[in-house]
Amino acid sequence: QVQLVESGGGSVQTGGSLRLSCAASGYTYSRNLMGWFRQAPGKEREGVAAINSYNTTTYADSVKGRFTISQDKGKGTLYLQMNNLKPEDTAIYYCAASSNSRPSWWLPSLRLADFAVWGQGTQVTVSS
Q: Measured between alpha carbons, how far is 25 from 2 in angstroms, rounded to an integer?
């Protein structure tokens, strides 16, 4: 059974940093698209960053220059380095993976429909 488990969330002050990790188990880490999403109370889930198997990345405009997505295929782990955090970054952060049928050469996407497997989420709280 495929599982994605996030860790690294917590509470920080404005301007602080956190590093989220997502460990994959139950399958070989070979999904062609991995991503981070977030959902704040009362808001829809939104894409934050995504990376394809060629390490091409894409980011939401709101996090460009502050967040960095990366992956270690050998360890089967996805990361999200978050710097200069703002109160509006407060949300539950989810790791997600595409199905194996997605072509590896496709550019990364932040569309929810492109992701088939989801983690349980980790809370990030940024106080002013």
A: 6
pLDDT in the model for residue 119:
96
User: What CA–CA distance (Å, rounded) separates 68 from 60?
Assistant: 11
Alpha-carbon distance 105 to 103, whole Å?
6
Give me 96's structure tokens.
């997600």
pLDDT at 73: 87
SS3 of residue 61 by DSSP: coil
User: What are the tokens at 4?
Assistant: 């994605």
- The secondary element (H helix, E strand) that includes residue 28 is none
pLDDT, mean of residues 80-89? 98
pLDDT reported for residue 45: 97
- With vertex at residue 75, the alpha carbon angle to CA 74 and CA 80, rounded to the nearest 5 degrees, is 115
What CA–CA distances, in Å, run from 100 to 33, 73, 113, 116? Answer: 9, 15, 14, 9
Cα–Cα dist 100/69, whole Å: 20
Task: Give the integer Cα–Cα distance in Å for 64 and 43.
Answer: 20
